[in-house]
Design goal:
There is one protein chain. The chain is an alpha/beta fold. The chain has 21 helices and 5 strands. A 5-stranded parallel beta sheet has the order 2-3-4-1-5, with helices on one face. The protein is elongated. The N and C termini lie far apart (96 Å). The C terminus is likely disordered. Zinc ion binds next to α4.
């Protein structure tokens, strides 16, 4: 038998097997149990969160030979045919390729005929927002008062594009994105059923990379199984995703807090040598800083299972919250700007240097002092400026030569604009040396 991808093989066949979406399941279960059935449903949500899956389960619930039920038997011919995708009274239409009014008219004309096998004729219209305005208008009448044997299930990733006249004729359910913990739990279950050994750390990485989509998570698991050809280890998943080891990022955060540019750039070089993704690195750095901020503001909220938890707590103890916020913001914005950078290395290292340039200057006793722009004096030079950057031998790319030029340039330019509040506007005015004095009022 040919191999079936995990996402298809593990499509939930009952409401109980569905992960998350409890709010939708609860409402549909009550409606089915009390036989209070609407004739049109709209499932809205991002890719791979269960819209098509829910539509098929609902079609089974309506057509199961044991009666309308929230728990279809999965044994009768109707249930089996719906699961196999060959039930004649379940008509799945892809609105993305059938956008025109003529196609809609054809569909609605066929709707007047009674179901062939089942209790209801169920029309699932996927990506319904792609229909043309005239196609939407053509369906309004039928959508409002369809024949008793018709049920419409509309699915969309973009409900904003659906006319309100259509929305008001449907029961709308908004499906939620899957939280990473729920995805990791589901992956763990599936890996177990498939007899695949998988490290929890690896599954957590896959869950995070799926960004809320269960389908993406299962596709990534497929890929990881093929990649690792055996146990799905955390290391293998990291290598596959080009994900950055948290150890690098903790070291990087340490170097940044020490204002040690040389060390920070050295770590970036090591990451480049291993072909790690700098986009992923900025995302992970922002993630780490979020955890550091969490450890400072609400230590109990920090996950006890977190790898490197002790090092995160150590960072939280030494960094001041304002600096953490600033680094976080620069990491997030640096990621946004990455496509505009000459190359990823340049974009990444510029973000690091921006963090150093705008960080509040450290006072000799280790505490941070108010930014120069606020106090109106040139701040004490930061350790980075005192030490200077690492020598730039062995650099190849043009971006690297530009970073060499930056290293050679006067560090005082950076140290004169250390206001955390103004970094994003780049309005770093050099502090006028005489502005420390209050202007004397002349009459
Ligand atoms: N809530 C969920 N619980 C368990 N598995 C899920 C869930 N949502 C999606 N999946 C998995 O993802 C696959 C795809 O889901 P589905 O086709 O329902 O997504 P969709 O929301 O219709 O996405 P799209 O907008 O891309 O069509 C399913 O076969 C199933 O394996
Ligand atoms: Mg779908
Ligand atoms: Zn059945």
């Amino acid at each position: 038998m040919s191999y079936q991808v995990l996402a298809r093989k593990w499509r939930p066949r009952s409401f109980a097997a569905l992960v998350g979406q409890e709010h939708v399941v609860k409402a549909l279960t009550h409606a089915l149990e009390q036989q209070r059935l609407h004739h049109a449903y709209l499932f809205a949500g991002t890719r791979g969160v269960g819209k098509t899956t829910l539509a098929r389960i609902l079609a089974k619930a309506l057509n199961c030979e044991s009666g309308i039920t929230a728990a279809p038997c999965d044994k009768c011919a109707a249930c089996a045919e719906i699961d196999a995708g060959r039930f004649v009274d379940l008509i799945e239409v892809d609105a993305a390729t059938n956008t025109k009014v003529d196609e809609m008219r054809q569909l609605l004309e066929s709707a007047v005929y009674s179901p062939t096998r089942g209790r209801f004729k169920v029309y699932v219209i996927d990506e319904v927002h792609m229909l043309s305005t005239s196609a939407f208008n053509a369906m309004l009448k039928t959508l409002e008062e369809p024949p008793a044997h018709i049920k419409f299930i509309l699915a969309t990733t973009d409900p904003q594009k659906i006319p309100v006249t259509v929305l008001s004729r449907c029961l709308q359910f908004n499906l939620k994105q899957m939280p990473p913990a729920a995805i990791a739990g589901h992956l763990h279950h599936i890996a177990g059923e498939e007899g695949v050994r998988a490290e929890p750390g690896g599954l957590r990485l896959l869950a995070a990379a799926a960004r809320g989509s269960m389908r993406d998570a299962l596709s990534l698991l497929d890929q990881a199984v093929a990649y690792s050809a055996g146990e799905v280890t955390e290391g293998a998943v990291r290598a596959m995703l080009g994900a950055v080891d948290l150890g690098y990022l903790v070291d990087l955060a340490d170097a940044l807090l020490d204002a040690d540019a040389g060390r920070a750039i050295g770590i970036a070089d090591a990451m480049e040598a291993r072909s790690l993704s700098f986009d992923g690195a900025l995302a992970e750095l922002a993630n780490l800083l979020h955890r550091v901020a969490l450890a400072q503001a609400a230590p109990d909220a920090l996950d006890l299972q977190l790898p490197d938890r002790d090092r995160i707590l150590a960072l939280a103890a030494r960094a001041d919250p304002e600096t953490v916020q600033l680094f976080y913001q620069i990491a997030v914005h640096g990621r946004r700007d990455l496509p505009l950078a000459p190359d990823e290395y340049a974009g990444f290292t510029m973000a690091l240097m921006r963090m150093l340039a705008f960080a509040p200057a450290a006072a000799p006793d280790g505490t941070s002092v108010a930014p120069a722009a606020v106090v109106g004096r040139t701040p004490p030079s930061a350790p980075a400026a005192r030490r200077g950057y690492r020598s730039g031998t062995g650099r190849r790319s043009s971006a690297r030569s530009s970073s060499r030029a930056l290293r050679a340039s006067s560090p005082s330019a950076a140290s004169s604009c250390r206001s955390p509040k103004t970094w994003s506007s780049f309005a770093c005015r050099r502090t006028p040396r005489r502005s420390a004095k209050r202007p004397t009022r002349t009459s």
